[in-house]
Design goal:
Low-confidence stretches: none
Structural class: alpha+beta
CATH architecture of the domain at 100-185: Roll
Largest sheet: 5 strands, antiparallel
Strand order of the largest sheet: 2-1-3-5-4
CATH superfamily of the domain at 100-185: RNA-binding S4 domain
Order of helices and strands: HHHHHHHEEEHHEEH
Number of strands: 5
Strand content: 5-15%
CATH class of the domain at 100-185: Alpha Beta
Shape: globular
Number of helices: 10
Helix content: 40-55%
Distance between the termini: 23 Å
Length: 209
């Protein structure tokens, strides 16, 4: 199954929570969750009286996939890699997702959503350690240097971003130099530094069935 290209607000309504897939709209009264509450998309929805453990685990896994914009095959590969780590599997999984290039571009404030960050990376607006990077799923290592390519810095979009970044503080595990359109990865984020509202243990239970 390919990447979902339909209305992203339907995904938030399906999960019953804000996934922040549409940048500023998610914080406005136009947000589908604000307007329709927990009403699921589609017609003739019949709510089950009791949700099984499997369904709860599945929904948490789907929620994580949709937040980070990852396909099922990719997500399973990240989980497999997380199981090989020496730490807690759930925390290691979130750490891998956070270290993706598109997520770091979003965390730095160069984009207002992960979807927009993915598009900016695909269009070749960033370099990693001096080389142009066009793969959103590229997992960065501590010490990696990210920068906007020189030709893109003069564009109206990045000039506006620079003004906003001057008043923005990045997350603790990233270092940002807004004046030079560059940043670096200080260290992998701890679970306490990841503000994504996920119950990663349910995801671990889902894949450990």
């Amino acid at each position: 199954m390919g990447r979902y290209t339909g209305p992203v607000c339907r995904l938030c309504r399906r999960e019953g929570v804000k996934l922040f897939l549409k940048s500023l709209r998610c914080d406005s009264p136009k947000c589908a969750i604000e307007r329709r509450g927990d009403q699921q998309p589609g017609m003739h929805i019949v709510k089950r009286r009791k949700t099984s453990d499997y369904a709860t685990q599945l929904r948490e896994k789907q929620k994580a996939r949709r937040i980070y914009g990852v396909l099922e095959r990719q997500f399973r590969r990240y989980f497999s890699e997380a199981t090989k780590s020496t730490g807690v599997t759930g925390a290691a999984l979130l750490q891998l997702l956070e270290m993706r290039l598109d997520n770091i571009v979003y965390r730095l404030g160069f984009a207002t959503s992960r979807k927009q960050a993915r598009q900016l990376v695909l269009h070749g607006h960033f370099t990693v350690n001096g080389a142009k990077a066009t793969v959103p799923s590229y997992v960065l290592k501590p010490g990696a240097q990210i920068a906007v390519v020189p030709d893109s810095r003069s564009s109206a979009y990045f000039q506006q971003v620079a003004k906003e970044l001057a008043h923005r503080k990045p997350v603790e595990w990233l270092s940002l130099d807004a004046a030079n359109f560059s940043a670096s990865v200080l260290n992998p984020p701890s679970r306490q530094q990841i503000d994504t509202a996920l119950k990663e243990q349910l995801i671990v239970e889902y894949y450990s069935r």
